[in-house]
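ARCHIVE CARD
Drawer: 12
Card no.: 0347
Subject: one protein chain, sequence and derived structure
Cross-reference: see card 0346
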Amino acid sequence: MTQTQRVVVTGATGTVGRQVVAELLDRGHEVRALTRDAAKAAFPAGVDVVEGDLTEPDGLVPALEGVTGLHLITFGGAAFSPLETGPRILELAKSAGVRRVTVLHGGAPTPLEDAVRADDGVDWTVLMPVEFMANALEWADGIVTSGEVREPFVDRLSAMVHESDIGAVAAVALTEEGHGGQEHVITGPDVLTVGDKVRTIAAAVGRDITLVELTEEQAVAQWRAAGLPEDTIGFLLMAYGDTPEVGRTVSGTVEKVTGRPARPFTRWAAEHADAFTGQS
């Protein structure tokens, strides 16, 4: 166990941020969770919840006092636009004594990540997770109401990662030596098709689930009906129709960094079974 440290987690109410908070607590560290609305944060006892906005970095000074690690996201504000405030955030962090910074990769180059990579005054680590297992929650309504999953490209491969493992890798990089200047590609332990995922969820909930393969045109119509913007639809067609090798290759990063195997999708499905039965 490393010496107890205090870490600021931004984006703390997000899918990954909550896991970073949880993993740091499990490892015995002190956590300061940054959120734009502390009243809605709902963190465990012992978490120091502070309000702040990454689009207004000078307001972060009190939150950075006495911390050694800082977890960053690359989007901020009410509109979740790419942050342009990276250089100022890093300047304030270093002045406060922050030694280690992790940044959650947003799927493409962003100004904040670029600023972090260019800074040699802190030990930075870029976290590059592949598809989140939590993405399967998008199927919950269809499974509950009709017992179906409707997806295109059902043979596509994914080394999807449990969001808790992203948090675990972040927690280690934020509190231990040896991760500065590195990209950590974070995956699960298996490569799965859509059919594999559906069968795993079916086993977890104890019911049959039908997988309906959509054509590309049907998928686009479904996504538009759901209100997805055209750039998101274009990204999904690219990611699902021709998944990059990095997204379908097991990296082994979780075990290398944390010392334990990555959590499998069977575990995630069991943990979230209620979402697929209408009980959540």
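Annotation on reverse: The CA atoms of residues 154 and 164 lie 25 Å apart. The two ends are 35 Å apart (CA to CA).
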